[in-house]
Amino acid sequence: VIVEKNIEDTRRIVNEWHRKGFSIGLVPTMGYFHNGHLELMKRAADTADKVVVSLFVNPTQFGPSEDLVVYPKDFDGDCAKAREVGADLLFCPEPDMVYAPRHCTEVSVGGLTEGLCGADRPGHFTGVATIVSKLFNIVRPNHAFFGEKDFQQLTVIRQLVTDLNFTVSIVGVPIVREPDGLAMSSRNAYLSPSEREAALVLFQALSRIKQEVLDSDGMRYAQDLLVKARELIETKPQCRVDYLEIVDEKDLSPVSAVKGKCRVLGAIRISDRIRLIDNLALYMAQG
Ligand code: AMP
């Protein structure tokens, strides 16, 4: 795997690939790879001729009281893992190269970014949309891969691509979980053993909602399901609910009755310190 920090050198490499007619798959990440990241890279390697993985802990998507400076890192481990799953180029620029001192352009996606994680993390999705737009312009990928773990982010990126006429095709990849169901996340590294145990309650609460929806003959009301899920989460003294919502998958609008393609999305805070998110589709997957 080629490791490249420089934007111009990265452009030169991908331009050469484009000239030779290779298709390019891009996997944007913040590093500290787990099997979720690796699944995105494998999908990219199956789909495209060349796989570019970006590794950049993007400062503009972190709030002032968030975990930017302590975000976990393992650069050598990441290189080895990316190589193993067939990445061709690991693009890991320095923040001051990405954001020159007089950088003053932002990409903001309206509507979709107001609720859910957007309500708890003002400016977060503008940071995401801006860095992803920059990566699309640097790499000019044919395909880009994003995890359903960050379902709102995936929806925002699809909207961004439509609205700004990017030509990349966006591929959403299902959530990769630990054996007990916890969604894999770089932030799981922050959890103590007892917090790790408590953290599972988010997946359990979402699963219970899914089970009730799939088991019921009639229609279920979102509020009834959400109240019970919240109660389950609150049985864990370390856990606090940031949000829990059932939304229409296509535009993330809250639904009152669960029918069609709905998804339950949740975020919890553990020990007031660690914020974890997860979501589940409330219908049977096809195929
Ligand atoms: P991050 O490094 O956390 O910014 O994540 C980089 C990409 O990996 C994003 O598209 C995430 O949605 C995706 N991702 C993170 N965790 C998982 C997971 N457990 N399963 C699938 N995709 C994931």
Walk me through what this model shows.
By secondary structure, this protein is of the alpha/beta class. The chain has nine helices and eleven strands. Helix 6 packs across helix 7 and helix 8 (193-215) packs antiparallel against helix 9. The radius of gyration is 19 Å and the shape is globular. It starts with a strand and ends in a 6-residue tail after the last strand. The mean pLDDT is 97. It binds adenosine monophosphate. Adenosine monophosphate binds next to helix 2 and strand 5.
Strand and helix layout:
Blueprint (H helix, E strand, L loop, with lengths): L1 E3 L2 H13 L4 E6 L5 H13 L2 E6 L19 H10 L4 E3 L3 H4 L18 H4 L3 H16 L3 E5 L3 H13 L5 E5 L19 H23 L4 E2 H13 L4 E10 L8 E2 L3 E9 L3 E8 L6
Helix pairs in contact: 6-7, 8-9
The site of adenosine monophosphate (AMP) has 17 residues, from helix 2 and strand 5.
